Amino acid sequence: MPELPEVETVCRDLRTGGVIGEKIIDVLVLWEKSIADLHPDQFRAGLVNNTIISVTRRGKYIHLVLHTGTSLLIHLRMTGSLTLRDIHQTNDLHDRVIIQFTNYNLVFHDPRKFGRMILTNNPELWLDALGPEPLHDDFTAAVLYERLHHRKARLKTLLLDQKFIAGIGNIYADETLFLAKIHPCRTGESLSKEEAFALHRAIQHTLRSAITNRGTSLGTGDGNFTSKGEAGQHGRQLQVFRRTQTPCYICQTPIEKIIINQRSTHFCPHCQK
DNA sequence: AGTGGCCCCTGGCGGC
DNA sequence: TGCCGCCAGGGGCCAC
């Protein structure tokens, strides 16, 4: 599942891969729902002959800005990936959209078809709805405490809420709460200032560490998320996610799995209070 | 404000 | 071996 670290890795790879300055020659839409509500002709017309001038990330969105000022927002959701592929390489069954440059293609590949590409002149409609960027300087521990202390929802729910904080998904929510030694069912308002500060440190450490490892690639079904088609190396660092009934690395207590808001949640019942 | 249910999808996997 | 049915899960939407 691409979360902030995986999306950040994709953006960095697109930049170093030379996408900036590239002119779009043609666009193939192989699955119409992947481009939201736009007709494929409009989508294509908005992109062809355009040049990409920047690649940035906001939450889990990849934001490509074109020289006309139009934005292409890409959300990978569950199984999406963006890869640069040699122009002579054949298409894959699960390719959904192919943006063609002179010498290579930018391929949106998405087996489960949840991902979306949004061509818009108003990207702020999507991006401004998001909560703070967890790795920005203005997201301080005090800011997190301020956002938490009046919330009655459980922490797992809040961490997954993109309006509360942007970019965290199921893997890093569980890992963050383990690192902070806080139980996922605790409510926002129940946290002391010290606990909120510990959670802030855990969020930033978990995300930074995962970015360093180029993200997490889970073994089966979920594919790779780096734009070079490689597996991210963070999987071996996971402390609780998908470790149900195996011993906690700290105290040997079996990791428990519960469901919170339809999401599987993994934690150590001894370490996390 | 918070929660639960359902939907979108399909590969993978457990059960028989 | 082969088939069936369930599950995962980000996020939108709706009901309560």
Which helices and strands occur, and which strands form pairs?
Blueprint: H1 4-16, E1 26-29, H2 40-47, E2 52-58, E3 61-66, E4 71-75, E5 81-86, E6 95-100, E7 104-109, E8 116-120, H3 124-127, H4 141-148, H5 155-160, H6 170-179, H7 193-212, E9 256-260, E10 263-267
Antiparallel strand pairs: 1-6, 2-3, 3-4, 4-8, 5-7, 6-7, 9-10
Helix pairs in contact: 1-7, 4-7, 6-7
The structure holds a DNA duplex (16 and 16 nucleotides).
Strand order of the largest sheet: 1-6-7-5
Overall 3D shape: elongated
Q: Pick out the low-confidence regions.
A: 219-225
Q: Sheet with the most strands?
A: 4 strands, antiparallel
Number of strands: 10
Continuous helix count? 7
Arithmetic mean pLDDT: 91
Strand content: 15-25%
Give the C-alpha Rg. 20 Å
Approximate helicity band: 25-40%
**Which structural class do the helices and strands define?**
alpha+beta
Distance between the termini: 27 Å
The ordered H/E elements are HEHEEEEEEEHHHHHEE
